[in-house]
Design goal:
By secondary structure, the protein is of the alpha/beta class. Helix content is 39%, strand content 21%. Strand 7 and strand 8 form a beta hairpin.
Length: 228
Amino acid sequence: MELWLEKLKNMTLLYAEDEEGIRKPMANSLSYYLKEVIEAKNGEEGLEQYEERRPDIILTDLRMPVRDGLYMVKKIRQNDRKTPILMITAHTDKEYLLSAIELKIEKYLIKPVALDELLSALKMCVEEIESGRTLFFECNGCKFDFKNRLLVHSNGQELELTHKESDFLELLLRKKGLIVSYSEIEMNVWKEEYMSIAALRTLVKTLRKKMGNSFIKNHSLSGYSFEI
């Protein structure tokens, strides 16, 4: 299996399409290549799923009822310029798309979309994600090596991070200065497991001890953030 396909297998995709006869078969086909395909039948539902699930890639039809794909993408791009977005359009939508130029769309796909064409576009998305992925982060003499899950202190001492510690720290650093909610932490760190508040507090306590500082801030009843 090609490396990009292996990486894609660990990613989630949000797929917004109002026509169930198109969405269901495509979602079933894509589920073979991705960790999970999250379905939405319009832009409003898609936006709700994005906020709750934070997918790695977004695939959306342009014209949908209630809220269209353009509305959804504009709302997402207000705070997120990194998540790759693929937009499905009709030939007649070209003028309508002029307002989407500034929205950083990875690729426009013209209906009808073949699976091989979509996979080619997903390969671009994987490459975009990998090129922007944080491998190292340095702060106050400490270096975080996410690839090898290591915390390296200024004196050269290396401390291995657990999978949850590394995932939690990377999540906070990706959103440095912003509050990451409990639900988002559970989704990205605990994944398929149940996360208790006690377990989360234990993880934070252990990680703070390893780091030797209090950059991880607790926001009561909200979540955590990384503050320098």
